[in-house]
């Protein structure tokens, strides 16, 4: 009997051939029945979507239907997966359906829709192009194509804004980091204190020294680039960032003529800076 035949062996008698034909017919009938049950479960609503997927899977596993019929089964399962939000599974099923039958317009539509849901815009655009070649008047595919074009335009505009924001912030940071010289001391607007009498050094190390990348991110807050995952720095800037040193001390060093006492200096209001330590150095 054909039921006892090993896989891959050929029937030797007419009875074995008849048995194999009967088994194939039974499997085909079962596959078609599973397909119809799956369609019925879809019509019954969301509570039965998993049952529909199970039926389509059983129909596929019979492995007796033609490529075009199996393509329909995969496309149907892709449809249910889309309804359930299983977009990756839907895309896989739709792609399998297209492999079996490249002109399956429903499979192409579902592949485009799943790709769009996964934000795979290039893939979605490609599927839309294939669908329009197969069916130039397909309204649903053209609708998805318009959505994709709109999203691609938004993405390009957003990327342009990010690039512009980063470029502008880099200019500001460079102007700060590479500025030359320092302005006059704010308390000596009239330049009464000459270098021969008093020498003041600007406060340094008063807090954590920020890296260029950190300064850039501060400038980018509130812009289109505020959520940028990474900011590319020049090799030179990256090296400078790694060489930053910090100090928590606050100190201003002063050098006065020995003829001026510390009491004189500290009693002169215009020479005092609140909350700063002073270091006195005798001599010039």
UniProtKB/TrEMBL annotation:
One of its GO terms (molecular function) is Hsp70 protein binding. InterPro entries: TPR-like_helical_dom_sf, TPR_rpt. GO terms for biological process: protein folding. SMART domains: TPR (SM00028). It comes from the Eukaryota. One of its GO terms (cellular component) is cytosol. This is Tetratricopeptide repeat protein 4-like protein.
């Amino acid at each position: 009997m054909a039921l006892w035949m090993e896989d891959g062996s050929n029937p030797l008698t007419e009875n074995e051939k008849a048995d194999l034909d009967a088994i194939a017919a039974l499997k085909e009938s079962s596959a078609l029945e599973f397909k119809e049950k799956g369609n019925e479960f879809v019509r019954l609503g969301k509570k039965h979507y998993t049952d529909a997927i199970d039926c389509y899977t059983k129909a596929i596993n019979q492995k007796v239907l033609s490529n075009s019929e199996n393509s329909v089964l995969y496309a149907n399962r892709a449809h249910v997966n889309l309804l359930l939000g299983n977009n990756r599974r839907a895309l896989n099923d739709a792609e399998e359906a297209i492999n079996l039958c490249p002109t399956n317009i429903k499979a192409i539509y579902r592949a485009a829709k799943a790709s769009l849901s996964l934000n795979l815009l290039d893939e979605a655009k490609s599927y839309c192009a294939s669908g329009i070649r197969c069916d130039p008047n397909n309204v649903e595919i053209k609708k998805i194509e318009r959505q994709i074009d709109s999203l691609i335009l938004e993405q390009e505009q957003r990327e342009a804004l990010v690039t512009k924001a980063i470029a502008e912030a880099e200019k500001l940071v460079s102007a700060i980091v590479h500025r030359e010289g320092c302005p006059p001391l704010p308390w000596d607007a009239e330049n009464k204190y000459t270098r021969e009498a008093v020498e003041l050094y600007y406060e340094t190390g008063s807090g954590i020294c920020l890296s260029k990348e950190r300064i850039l991110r501060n400038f980018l807050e509130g812009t289109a680039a505020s959520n940028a995952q990474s900011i590319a720095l020049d090799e030179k800037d990256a090296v400078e960032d790694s060489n930053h040193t910090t100090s928590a001390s606050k100190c201003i060093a002063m050098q006065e003529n020995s003829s001026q006492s510390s009491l004189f200096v500290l009693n002169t209001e215009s020479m005092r800076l609140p909350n700063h330590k002073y270091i006195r150095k005798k001599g010039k």
